[in-house]
Amino acid sequence: MSAINEQVTQKQIALEADISPDFFNHILHGRRPCPKAVAVRLEMVTGISKVIWVWGSPAQLRAAVRKVCTNDTRHIHHDR
User: Fold this and answer.
1) In terms of Cα–Cα distance, which of 66, 50, 53, 72 is closest to 5?
2) Which of 9, 49, 52, 62 has a C-alpha 20 to 30 A away from that of 35?
3) At what angle do helices 36-46 and 58-71 cross, to 10 degrees?
4) Whole-angstrom Cα distance, residue 36 to residue 71?
């Protein structure tokens, strides 16, 4: 990821957190639980609390990720 102002995709978030985009999608839709180790990495990448990743509802997760993807890329690591 290059520019801080560019929109971030869910695929980019997944890859930055070292998980597959497919697994990320399963987490977002409640088809798979988010492992605690993955939640920590997702928190580092997105700024969304690991508590939300582990215990949040799919609707809460999708809303938080949508916010990160559309207008709040400050938490995304740009050094990879």
Assistant:
1) 72
2) 9
3) 30
4) 26
pLDDT at 64: 94
**Residue keyed to tokens 């582990």:** 54
Block means of pLDDT (10 residues each) for the chain, 80 residues, are: 66 96 97 97 95 96 92 52
Its pTM surpasses 0.85: no
CB 59 within 8 A of CB 73: no
- Tell me the two tokens of residue 19: 């998980």
- Give the angle subtended at the CA of 40 by the CAs of 50 and 56, to the nearest 5°: 25
Helices (H), 1-80: 10-16, 21-28, 36-46, 50-55, 58-71
